Queue: 2 jobs
Job 1
Amino acid sequence: MTRTVLAADFGGTNLRAAIVSAEGHILHRDDHLTPAESTPQAIIAQVIELLAGTVAASGAQPAAACIATAGLINAEEGKVIIAPNIPGFRNLVLTTPVGERLGIPAYIENDASAAALGEFRFGAGRGTRHLLHATVGTGIGGGIVIDRRLYRGAKGLAGEIGHIIVDPAGPRCNCGSRGCLEAMVSGVAFAERARLILQQGKSAILKEIAAGEPPTAVHLSAAAARGDTVCEAEIRHGGHILGLALGSLVNVLNPDCVTLSGGLLSMGEMLLGPAREAMYSLAYGPAAGTLIHLSELGDDAGLLGAAAVAFEHLDT
Ligand SMILES: [Zn+2]
């Protein structure tokens, strides 16, 4: 029988679950809305039943389960420390009840760390040994693979590249610091820049596209694509900042490659061109040979990342 795992991508809106083979093939999948129960305990109970339902419907006998979710995770203790997208999720052990209900070892992992291992095992980082992954979306996340294993650090926090300071005088970040990468280059940061552009009356095109709604990164990108130079400069500057952060990390970690995923990549070369240029301008010596690859896992990155983590646990 094919060796499989149960993988789950647990977000604020969606709970995706799948049975995944060791080759990264999704053999069965279920997409649910995240249960909207009144207490975290009730949400967990519902999630566990949905996961058990996926196992039953698939007819598979997965060897392990892994749940990937956003937030601070203590993978060793199987605990969610804080999940910002799921109300009330603080200091909750998730793996014990999941493992008990399903009768298999259960694991939990930060979604960006899982995505890094997913790219390494099944995606754009296949065949490498050391990899840095960055998710560039609403926020900025990251994951590090060293010597073919996910690097978690002492307390499971490793890979939080969104909180590298890129401008000490920059805007305040959710974490409390000033000028974090995430506060400068992310969906939220670009939306704030777009709001300021409108407030200062600097872009008629952006004003027309936003049509009275609060402007978003998508609006900013659309205005730039229509030739708005102010919006384009904003995106290019963001790309440059992103590249500086990646270049710094490349000098520290010396990975074989950097993989990128996330919604902001739809900004294309306007963001990625300056990012690449800044990264290579910083890369020291042999680090200048570090490759940048775009994710190959698309929408399934969360599921395949969780599966990769489950297989890593099984293999060690
Ligand atoms: Zn921060």
Note: The chain has ten helices and 13 strands.
Job 2
Amino acid sequence: MLTATVAEKLPIGRGDERRLTQVLLNLAGNAVKFTETGAIDILADAVDGHFEITVRDTGPGIASKDQALIFEEFQQVDSSSTKQKGGTGLGLAISKRIVEMHGGTIEVESVLGSGSAFRLKIPMRVEESAEAA
Ligand SMILES: Nc1ncnc2c1ncn2[C@@H]1O[C@H](COP(=O)(O)OP(=O)(O)O)[C@@H](O)[C@H]1O
Ligand SMILES: [Mg+2]
């Protein structure tokens, strides 16, 4: 089950739409790839001048010792699930760069065995016309 919860009346931001879409697709793709049972939830909100987007899953989770590593190029967790599912280990490294180019942050919260939540915070740089509307 995949749900998306988008806050009402989100302001219109400025940014590289194509690259930010790649980031979201990568996070959602990972969630779908690694989650065998349960749910994936995508949440979008505007908080204190930035957009906050969370992709949460009930997949295998990521041990604390691996949580920084996975944002580095070519790094995959050395688990059977990662080995079975393939991939290049580049998605999160590229995502982190794109988010940081927008002045934002990406972080993961996870408990091994009970899922992961990847959270993006991206400063709004709201369009003036949208602000006035
Ligand atoms: N939602 C997730 N649940 C569990 N592990 C994850 C999740 N997302 C990423 N990982 C771990 O982080 C690694 C790096 O992810 P990524 O950079 O997207 O590379 P890839 O998907 O090509 O393996 C994955 O190989 C996996 O070990
Ligand atoms: Mg990936």
Note: Residues 17-34 form the longest helix (18 residues).
